[in-house]
Amino acid sequence: MDLLLPPSQLLAAFAAASLLLAVTPGPAVVYIVTRTLAQGRASGLASVLGVAVGNLGNALGASLGLAALFAVSSAAFTAVKWAGAAYLVYLGVQALRAPAAVRDGNPTPPPPASRARLFRDGCLVALLNPKTTLFFAAFLPQFMSASAPAMPQAVLLGSLFVLLAACTDACYVALAATLAPLLRQHGGRRPWGRWLAGGTYIGLGLLTALSGRSPTK
Predict the structure, then answer these.
(1) Which of 69, 82, 127, 149 sits at a 20 to 30 Å CA gap from 216?
(2) Are 32 and 24 contacting, i.e. CB atoms less than 8 angstroms apart?
(3) Does the pLDDT value for residue 161 go beyond 60?
């Protein structure tokens, strides 16, 4: 295993840089926090797991050369990017269209989505972001040793980054779950969760569609 890892100094620098990047809020954090605020801690954690699996797929894709394909093929990059944007908009429209039952004259939120669906949605949102693959392709080589095989190092470092990101995302879930009761109390029985989720997903979809090719996590 030691032969597949970079020197300890590089590994420590990678861990520090990864932690700094992981705690910086990005589209995935916004998505996870929105899920938590709308549907609770368990839903947020299911989304974290799905995003982590999707990001791991992106890391493996970067290791296998998909990043090189996206870098040279505008058509491939654009096709995946628009698929991801369309899926986010679809999630937003579904959230806005979810019926709210009426009880005693006040709307009540619809039943939450299943954990399996939340996992699937998180995984697809992460996988359909080609900029994440480009991010791994640009970030990982800076901490790889020339004296060790490249692909195993990329896989191990990518997996470590995904693990750190999942831990920080779980912290965001805990914070959002703590704040959610206060927001519900302030918002009364209004279906704020549905509008928050729908607006956020559509906004993320439009941001994804209009963004360039700069690598991002």
Answers:
(1) 149
(2) no
(3) yes
What are the backbone dihedrals phi and psi of residue 40, each rounded to the nearest 5 degrees, phi first? Answer: 110, 175
For residue 81, how many other CB atoms are within 10 A of its CB?
A: 21
Positions of E strands within 24-131: 101-103, 106-108
Rounded Cα–Cα distance for residues 187 and 133 (Å): 39
DSSP state of 140: G
DSSP per position, the chain: -GGGS--HHHHHHHHHHHHHHHHS--HHHHHHHHHHHHH-HHHHHHHHHHHHHHHHHHHHHHHHTHHHHHHH-HHHHHHHHHHHHHHHHHHHHHHHHS--EEETTEEEPPPPPPHHHHHHHHHHHHHT-HHHHHHHHHHGGGG--TTS-HHHHHHHHHHHHHHHHHHHHHHHHHHHHHHHHHHHHHHTTS-HHHHHHHHHHHHHHHHHHH--S----
Q: How far is CA 163 from CA 3, 74, 108, 113, in A?
A: 21, 30, 36, 25
pLDDT in tens, 98-138: 655 444 444 445 556 788 999 999 999 888 888 788 888 88
So what's the pLDDT on residue 138?
Answer: 81
Model pTM? 0.73
pLDDT digits over 22-73, tens only? 888 888 888 899 889 888 899 999 999 999 999 999 999 888 876 676 666 7
